[in-house]
Task: structure prediction
Amino acid sequence: DTGVSQDPRHKITKRGQNVTFRCDPISEHNRLYWYRQTLGQGPEFLTYFQNEAQLEKSRLLSDRFSAERPKGSFSTLEIQRTEQGDSAMYLCASSYGTGGEGYTFGSGTRLTVV
Amino acid sequence: AQSVTQLDSHVSVSEGTPVLLRCNYSSSYSPSLFWYVQHPNKGLQLLLKYTSAATLVKGINGFEAEFKKSETSFHLTKPSAHMSDAAEYFCVVSPNFGNEKLTFGTGTRLTIIP
Result:
C-alpha cells in the first residue's frame, strides 16, 4: 500500500487549454474525494465517488469540470477551457466506508494557469 | 449546515513551550472532528479524530485535543513544541451521518522559534 497517488504533481497550462489529473486511491478504499485548495485557504469539497458512482458534486464544480471513476478504482478530474481562477492545488483523498475514520490524502496536483 | 472557525491564522511559540491551536465548530448533527497537518509540499496528514467516544483524544506526535460540546470547541494542544511541528494545521468537521464530506477551517500556521 503506497497511499494515495496523484499525477502530475505540477501542471502549468495556458488559459483556455484542457487539463486532466489522475488519482489512484488506496486499493481497498471504496470512496474517493476531490478537493480544491487555494492559497491561504483550507481545502474545499468538489465531488466524491462511492465505487464508480458519483454521489455528490459541489456548486464549485462548474460545467467545465468533470470527474470520473470508471471502474471504481482510479479517478480523473478534467478541467476544460481553463481560467486563471482555476489555479489551485487539487487534492484527492480516499476512505473505506463512511470515512468516519478520516481520509487519506494524496500530495495533490498544483495547477497554474497562465 | 456545518462550519469550522480557527481563531488564529498564525501562532508562534518557542521550542519546548506548549502549543495551543484553537478551533470552534458549528454542526446541526453530532459531528466527527479532525485535526490535519500539512507540511510544505506534502499531503494532508491526519493528526487525530473525535468520533463521539472519549472527549479527550490523543493523536500522533504528542498532540491531543479535547471535545467540549458546551463550548463547541475542539482545541489542539501539545505540551512541548518541537521544530518539526512547524506546519499548517486544519480543524475539520464532518456531519457523521453517511455523507462524510469534510468541511475545513482556514488553517493556522504554526511557527516554532528556536
